[in-house]
Amino acid sequence: MDLSAFPYLQGNYAPVSEERDLDESALRVEGQVPQGLRGAFMRDGANVAFQPNHYVYPLDGDGMVHAVYFRDGHVSYKNRWVETAHLKTERKFNRMIYGSVGKVLPVPQEVIDAGGEPNPVRNTANTNVLYHGGKLLAMWEGGFPHLLNNDLSTVGLYDYDGALKPGDALTAHPKICPDTGQLISCTQRWDSPNYWVQIFDAQAKHVRTIPVAFERKGIIHDLQITENYVIIFYAPAFHSLEKAMKGEDPFMWEPELGTKIIVIPRDGSGEQRVFETDAFFSWHFCNGFERGNEIVIDYVWISSIPFAQAQGSGAEKQPRRMHRMTLDMATGKVADEEFSDVFCEFSRVDERRMGKDYRFGFAASSNREWGDAHGYNCTGRYDFKTGETKLWEYGPEANAGEPVYVANPDSEREEDGWVMCFVYNPGEGAFLSILSAGDFDRGPVAKVLIPGRVPNGFHANWMEGLTL
User: What is the mean pLDDT of residues 309-334?
Assistant: First the structure.
């Protein structure tokens, strides 16, 4: 493949072609892996298999999951493509067939006649990998998730025993309630502007659907839960599938409309509240909680839509900052302040504090300027009790992924857990970094060094108890 035309396929954004199984003899561990951990750290991401025709932002590569398994202080590594119908079809024809979200291509009739995937919108299964209710899922919010086995082999599309209907697209960024075990998610559809909150119980059985009506289909990636509410940001960011099919720029940013914050009762009853602010965009929440009559929301703020159809627009490199928003449920007022001026994304918390008051947020962060393609060379810790932002830098040229908090099974304290992420540092190679949540100045307590590369990707999670 010639990837030279695409900034987001250079350096550690470039794909890897090999699927590997590495036991501890092929890995190298520096430091001490925490002995009490039993489970797997997994991360999904875009990994193109064939020469793309259009690739502006790292959204369109085929999904590949990278996993490090932990058991009794021992580790192993595995990576696999998610075997989607679109990837299988392109392998059959040994070439790129499908376009991108920004430039959809018609499916050739010869492909359809040969039994290939007829949908021109690729289900990439590249955005998140999640373990809930005994189900391991590779997720992409434009369609159904894919069910995986523990060894990352693909079972196939998963519809939650019929709860998802044809055309439903399940979000790739749900939240899990630490008290009930419920998965709070949502569906959107290409043929409707509306949004539906979907709630599944701890065994992955569907509980309820809560409809939210919109006049236009917005680009909504994440949601946040509190004890009683689901919160979403409805920014004036829109995508037109019709324009994408014509080759026109399908992305629209209309800041004069402002951004709406929608507060939805989790039990499905009561009024849905709408708060309005000046326009901003956000990919990711950090956490949220209720405080008297207020709802506090911590999130990553972006001034406008962070992607475009055109190459080299720079939209994706605009500042991303940790913010704290307060919604006054009594007065309807919104207060919003920048918490830190550090460039950051992929914000996470101790999942035991999801929807509750908490101290630490973590995010992929940067302390340097980037060239053609932005990235993150640090893991950041955002202390919402003291106001301090602390960075651990892996190196000026390093690429660090989404940090995932992994709880210490012997402690309820946030400080006693670990923060894991994949890192690639030229000259050092790829490794899984394990930081002490309470002692960032110490640096990694362990590194699991992996031969070859683990490319930059999207969302990661800790799969408690999942082993080979």
Answer: 89
Decide if 231 contacts 295 (C-beta within 8 A): yes
Nearest by Cα to 265 from 336, 205, 212: 212
3-state SS class at 321? strand
User: Any idea what DSSP says for residue 407?
Assistant: -
Place of tokens 């190298």: 28
* Alpha helix positions (H), 240-395: 241-246
> What is the spatial distance between Cα 103 and Cα 98, in angstroms, rounded to a whole number?
9
Instruction: List, for residues 377-434, the tens digit of each pLDDT value.
Output: 999 999 999 999 999 999 999 999 999 999 999 999 999 999 999 999 999 999 999 9
Distances (CA, A) of 2 to 11, 42, 48, 62, 87: 13, 29, 12, 17, 19
**Superfamily in which the 7-464 domain is placed by CATH:** TolB, C-terminal domain (2.120.10.30)
| Cα 428–chain centre separation | 26
105, exposed or middle or buried, with CB in 10 Å at 0-12, 13-18, 19+?
A: middle
Give DSSP secondary structure letters for 258-287.
Answer: -EEEEEEETTS-SPPEEEEES--B-S-EEE
Query: Would you list the domain boundaries of the chain?
Result: 7-464
Longest dimension (CA), the chain: 62
3-class DSSP assignment, residue 233: strand
